[in-house]
Amino acid sequence: MGACGTEPQEQQAAGHGRGGTRAEGGPIAMSSTSLQRSIHIDAPVEKVFDFVKDPKNTFEAFFEGASTVAEKDIAPDAGEGSVWSWQSHLLFLPFHGTLTRQDYVPHERIVDHSSTGVTWTYTFEPDETATTLALEVEVSSPVPFLDKIEVKVFSKGESDLVTWLGSIKKAIET
Hints:
Elements: E1 9-16, E2 31-41, H1 45-52, H2 55-63, E3 67-73, E4 83-90, E5 93-105, E6 109-114, E7 118-126, E8 131-141, H3 146-154, H4 158-173
C-alpha cells in the first residue's frame, strides 16, 4: 500500500466450508466462502459511511452500471430492516434478488444480506484524516461446496474486491 493509502490492502482472505447434511429435524448445514479486503480512503468516516449505506452506490461500483436497485421498505436513515430489490447481469445472465440490511451501526458497520446467499459486511475505521473501509463478502449455500463454485464462476475472487473497493474510493474522493 502506498504512503497515502491509494492501494487496497488485504486484511484476510479465507475460504471455509461448513458443509454437511441435514440432521434429523435439525437446521440445514450451510457451506460458505468468505473473502475480505480493505482500502484507505482520504475522506472522513461520515462521508464514506453515507456513500456506502446507499446500495445504489455500492451496486454501481460492483456492477459498473449493469444493475438497478429500487427501495422497497426503508427504515429511518436506511438502517437495520431496510429492504431493496435489485437486478443485475453477470456473464450475460440476468440475476435479481432482495437485499436486507441486517445490521447498522452508524460510522462503524453495515451488514447487507441478499436473497441469493451473498452477505456484504462493511466496517469503517476512522483515523485523523481518513477512513479505512473493510469489506467482507460471504457466499453461502445449503449445497456443500456450491459456494466455492459460485465464487469461481461468477467472480475473480479477491481481485474483484480490490476493484470494487477501488471504485468506491474513486467515487468518494472525486
